[in-house]
């Protein structure tokens, strides 16, 4: 359907954000649907993973740290894993597997069924109508999911740490907040926002590059997941390096 | 709307499909494009709709070449050209009502929502689609979806209508209805371009006929690749 490379495609989509208000009458519905599918319908799954990971960190870390008398480090570990490193990666991976594949499949099938041709024939730009709202929706959803993941992960950690030693909620959160630097939050948001942008751009691009056969759709999907995963790794490594560079300057 | 094809040539996978096609359809005239399966009717259809840009040659709309159109002229061309695909090509995750509202939202943003709904309900009544308005279009039968595709194109009251394989998916009742509708559109002065193998049904409407040859005939240079003729 599109016969140009990923970079021009991305530039076109990003430039379309600037004029989103002009076509909001036809694009707003798609944006809201994307947020509902990616950000709201995935809440249960993300909550389960967050609770389990938060609990697992305490189950594994608490006995080890208490055996060497360094229990205070459990808060730093919780922040490092849930907020800064593991948490954002897991949330982005869940979204890539769940919503990235859905976008590629949906757009690929639309190409095969000539729905994209029909949009063009009606004068509706597929980028403005289909891609830009999905990209914006994906970024917004990832920020929403990540906030939820942090809340559930920390809550899971608190519940399990109570099994080892009874800690009042206020004490737990005061000690946790003392370890939390504002840069942790900025890096977390930057990681998920950039990942959301890349996942949705890669998924949309691969969906729209289906030519005409339905058999191309799973092939493009496999490519989209592979490239999305590589992009996720690069983004997360770069932002982690940036975090340590900034923290060492502080 | 006057539509002119000037020296259109196009190849797919290095095989020439269309070679040097030139024809002019004056405003209010009807062109019938015929040819065997694989002769390039759907490719020519997609070139006229500007979904595919021709490798050589130009399509002119009211004497303006498509690549030279301003954004406003192009938006008008999109608004005034009704396109009906071989498959219904409705947006499958939208309801029928949302599908029909889409071109209205794009081109008639000044109309109120109620006015747009009134237009949508009016055309659905004409095509017996009212009871399906709230249904997702991927759940419609192919015949109903084909009628919905026709309704979507006519909703915008196009100045020109291009239709790939008319009367191919519907029963005899709707076939007669579509034929009557085409006659009515022609009387109203709508430019018609019909790509069809069922020429016996619509040849009476046509002012001109463009017969496309098969790619093998093109390659051998034997038979005429594309023959345009005036109909009686």
From TrEMBL, chain A:
The keyword Transmembrane applies. The keyword Transmembrane helix applies. InterPro entries: Permease_MalE. GO terms for molecular function: phospholipid transporter activity. The chain crosses the membrane at residues 6-21, 42-62, 74-96, 138-161, 182-205, 225-246. Signal peptide: none annotated. Pfam families: MlaE (PF02405). Keywords: Membrane, Transmembrane, Transmembrane helix. GO terms for cellular component: ATP-binding cassette (ABC) transporter complex. PANTHER family: ABC TRANSPORTER PERMEASE PROTEIN-RELATED (PTHR30188), PROTEIN TRIGALACTOSYLDIACYLGLYCEROL 1, CHLOROPLASTIC (PTHR30188:SF4). This is ABC transporter permease. It comes from Pseudoalteromonas rubra.
From TrEMBL, chain B:
It is a peripheral membrane protein. Signal peptide: none annotated. Keywords: ATP-binding, Cell membrane, Membrane, Nucleotide-binding, Transport. Its main location: membrane. It is found in: Cell inner membrane. Residues 3-231 form the ABC transporter domain. Pfam families: ABC_tran. GO terms for molecular function: ATP binding; ATP hydrolysis activity. GO terms for cellular component: plasma membrane. The keyword Transport applies. InterPro entries: AAA+_ATPase (IPR003593), ABC_transporter-like_ATP-bd (IPR003439), MetN_ABC_transporter-like (IPR050086), P-loop_NTPase (IPR027417). Gene3D superfamilies: P-loop containing nucleotide triphosphate hydrolases (3.40.50.300). Belongs to the ABC transporter superfamily. This is ABC transporter domain-containing protein. It comes from Pseudoalteromonas rubra. The lineage of its organism: Bacteria, Pseudomonadati, Pseudomonadota, Gammaproteobacteria, Alteromonadales.
């Amino acid at each position: 359907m599109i016969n140009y490379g990923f970079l021009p495609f991305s530039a076109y989509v990003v430039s379309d954000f600037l004029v989103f208000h002009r076509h909001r009458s036809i694009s707003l519905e798609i944006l809201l649907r994307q947020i509902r599918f990616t950000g709201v319908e995935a809440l249960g799954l993300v909550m389960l993973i967050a609770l389990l990971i938060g609990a697992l960190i305490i189950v594994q870390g608490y006995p080890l740290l208490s055996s060497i008398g360094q229990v205070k480090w459990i808060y730093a570990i919780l922040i490092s894993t849930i907020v800064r490193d593991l948490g954002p990666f897991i949330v982005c991976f869940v979204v890539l597997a769940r919503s990235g594949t859905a976008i590629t499949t949906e757009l690929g099938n639309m190409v095969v069924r000539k729905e994209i041709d029909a949009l063009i024939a009606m004068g509706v730009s597929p980028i403005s109508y289909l891609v830009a709202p999905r990209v914006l929706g994906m970024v917004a959803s990832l920020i929403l999911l990540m906030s939820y993941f942090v809340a559930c992960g920390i809550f899971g950690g608190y519940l399990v740490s109570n099994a080892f030693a009874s800690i009042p909620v206020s004490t737990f959160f005061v000690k946790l907040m003392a370890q939390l630097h504002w840069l942790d939050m900025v890096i977390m948001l930057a990681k998920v926002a950039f990942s959301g942008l890349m996942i949705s751009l890669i998924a949309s691009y691969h969906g729209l590059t289906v030519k005409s056969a339905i058999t191309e759709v799973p092939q493009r999907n496999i490519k989209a997941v592979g490239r999305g995963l590589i992009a996720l790794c690069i983004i997360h490594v770069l932002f982690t390096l940036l975090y340590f560079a900034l923290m060492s300057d502080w | 709307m006057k539509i002119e094809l000037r020296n259109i040539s196009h190849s797919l996978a290095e095989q020439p499909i269309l070679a040097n096609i030139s024809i002019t359809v004056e405003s209010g005239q009807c062109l019938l494009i015929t040819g065997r399966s694989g002769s390039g009717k759907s490719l020519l259809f997609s070139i006229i709709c500007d979904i595919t840009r021709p490798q050589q040659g130009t399509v002119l709309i009211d004497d303006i070449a498509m690549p030279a159109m301003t954004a406003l002229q192009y938006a008008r061309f999109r608004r005034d050209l009704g396109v009906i695909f071989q498959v219904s090509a409705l947006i499958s995750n939208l309801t029928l009502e949302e599908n029909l509202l889409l071109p209205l939202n794009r081109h008639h943003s000044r109309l109120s929502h109620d006015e747009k709904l009134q237009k949508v309900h009016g055309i659905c009544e004409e095509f017996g689609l009212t009871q399906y308005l709230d249904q997702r279009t991927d759940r419609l039968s192919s015949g109903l979806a084909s009628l919905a595709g026709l309704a979507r194109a006519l909703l915008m009251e196009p100045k020109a209508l291009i239709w790939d394989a008319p009367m191919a998916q519907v029963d005899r009742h709707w076939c007669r209805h579509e034929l009557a509708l085409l006659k009515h559109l022609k009387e109203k002065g709508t430019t018609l371009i019909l790509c069809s193998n069922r020429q016996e049904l619509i040849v009476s409407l046509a002012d001109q006929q463009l017969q496309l040859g098969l790619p093998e005939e093109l390659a051998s240079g034997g038979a005429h690749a594309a023959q345009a003729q005036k109909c009686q």
